[in-house]
Amino acid sequence: MAAKKKRTPKVQSDSWVVIAPDSVTAAHKHDTDPAFVRLRNPCTAAASLYLLASGDLELYEVKAFQEEFHSWFIGQVVQRDGRLLYVTPMDPLYLLLPYLMKSGKEGKFQPVDQVVMDEEFPACSRLLTCSRSLASLRHIAEEKEVGDLKFHRYSQEKTMDWLQKKVERTVIALKKKKTISVGEGVKSSTYVRVKSEPDSREEDYLRYAHGLVSEYLSEDLSRALLQHLKLPELTSPKDTEPPSKKRKLSDLPVEAGEDYTKFNSDDFARKPPKKMTAAQKSLAKVDKSGMKTMSSFFSPKVKAEKK
Length: 307
Hints:
The chain has 307 residues and is an alpha+beta fold.
């Protein structure tokens, strides 16, 4: 009698649907494949997920679009994780900046490879191989050469000038996008124009751009940049407050857990309470004491135990 063949259980590997530029998967001279890495988020200092490609020469930010009760069909398999990941190019200088600022408190020039070190995130050293990293350090630090060696020291003045240029370039991009409203006609919850408005003031553009750039800065650095731009700090919430305080569902940064599938808390995705209809308001006023719930009619009956 032939022995029955044991079936090997199918192990479904984790899969995601990712939107990425062609440069991520394009053929390069490097043999290494794109890799997801855990790095310290420059805004929150928590672990976030990033992508290194082209032999660690290019850095990409990973974010997620997430809606409830969604799934994907991948081939013949249903992937219950309905998140949509998308990656976009990112300036590695944002991630290097916190390390330079920390070492700058010592007030001395140091080799950058001794500055960008993190026991919790050892992959941070790979940022130094990015094509824009070493060449861009002069924007945020003073540089000194001793023989063939280069030493750097954080400069607050250089950093503010560099961030100001980032804001100004963002303003130019915003003005080219005629569909983006940055004035008081912006409804904070949905980013849509809710009323006609005159041409936005320059301050509106600067404040909006500052909010976008602040997505990659610590709170203290964001406040310092606000002062450098000579923008008054808002004392009360307005529709024109920086976008960093009006996160949309599609702007959730990916929290890099050990399995790379965890995401930031749902605090950013809280929905406003829905308004009750007239019928619901009337029903709420009815005295329900003594009434059975609807679920009680469908619950299984408890059988009496035999004695």
